[in-house]
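Technical note accompanying the year-one report. For the benefit of new consortium partners, we illustrate the data format agreed upon in the data management plan: each record pairs a sequence with a structure-token string. No post-processing was applied to the example shown here.
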Amino acid sequence: MINKIFNKFNQISKVKLHIFLQITFFITAIIFTYISVKIWDYQLIENEFKKMGQIKFFFVAVILAPLFETFVFTYLPFKLLSKKIKLEYVIFIASFLFGIQHFYSVVYIIFGIIAGFILNIYYSYLLKYNNKYAFLLVVLLHSVANLISTILEFLDKHFS
């Protein structure tokens, strides 16, 4: 299964692949934010803004969290497990761990698993082709997704 995905990725230029994954993440973030805010009425960003302030929250959500989470839930599982178990299992384990650490609600966990899967597929693809920037590209993808979710929830709160 993973090789089929990688073969599809190989048919796309690296820049187009990153843009495709960013758009995939963007669409996922829109759906997730809509479900979270409109259907479940869960305002994570509003709650966190109140606790730590907007600037600190932005810094944590867009810079620190993607760095930390990519290290703990992508880099480490691949480093520790990839020589011991099949790549598909590493991706599943890393994605599941990424998802359950977003324990704010069931919706966040489900979104986290999906997001983790996208991030880990991308990371494993970059590693396979010896991309020395794999870690940073995944952090960038994650950062932009968090930025989009933050902006969408903020706009919904203030303009709906």
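Partners are asked to follow this layout when depositing records. The chain has one domain: 2-159.
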